[in-house]
Amino acid sequence: QELIRMVEQAGFVASKPGRTPRSRPSAEPKALGSLSKQDVSVLKAVLTAGLYDSVGRILCTPSLDIQERVACVVETAQGKAHVHLSSVNRYLQTHGWLLFQEKVKYTKVFLRDTTLISPLSMLLFGGDIDVQHRDRLISLDGWIYFQ
């Protein structure tokens, strides 16, 4: 909710009627459910711009048993990591990109505070772009590839 308030103050997301961008911290914050799809996309783009170094590709490894829940594994620039046990994305099984706030090491390396992000926001706010015309690829920082 603090991030929403900051994004509103910066003018990236319009404030709802009855709420000024310079609201007191004690003012009633906007509920996450009241954000439009466009507002959520802007928030994720802002997060990508600020936390781009903490991005990873989801390695989808579905189980043969439909009822078995497989933990989500993510490939980061430093190697593979698992989504933290307490995360809502713990059993995420999709192709895509995940942004994380921190990496912790217990018996394995875990990612905390994760969210799915768009490849477009990575291209707009990410690292060095290299276009490989012959191979029809775009690479970001030499390890993220888009066809």
Automatic annotation (TrEMBL):
Record domain DEAD-box helicase OB fold: where: 43-129
UniProt superkingdom: Eukaryota
InterPro entries noted in UniProt: DEAD-box_helicase_OB_fold
One of the Pfam families matching this protein, by short name: OB_NTP_bind
Identification of the protein by name: DEAD-box helicase OB fold domain-containing protein
Organism: Cirrhinus mrigala (Mrigala)
